[in-house]
Amino acid sequence: MIQLFCKRSPWQRSVEFVYTETWAHQNRFMVAEPLKLHEIPADTEMPAPTFALPEDGAQKLMDSLWREGFRPTEGTGSAGALAAVEKHLGDMRAIAFRYLEIGEDTDSAARVEKAVEKFESIVKEMRQGRNDDRTRV
Length: 137
What we know:
The chain has 137 residues and is of the alpha+beta class. 46% of the residues lie in helices and 16% in strands.
């Protein structure tokens, strides 16, 4: 079993990693040693990878970094975040339609049209109220 632990080290502005493998069938526990850099000539061909992770290990690395607060620089985010936003949007729509007294029995396009009409009427009333306030002063 592969385990990859990471922890943000804010004092050193870095992330610390510990990579372990447990081979239960052989009763062995292994831990990766610290990486060492060696100078090579600039024109050297690309060396072998520093290390490789099986896909489940790569997923564990991503999950660990996510737990430590790291997010992709670009991209659309996770499916879980998108689902949360979609749920929130659905809740807000339900609240708006309830407030505007528009029933759920109406089809979606008609509901939106009714909502816009109702909203415009509310804005008009608010503007009228503001104009009334100005004339009283």
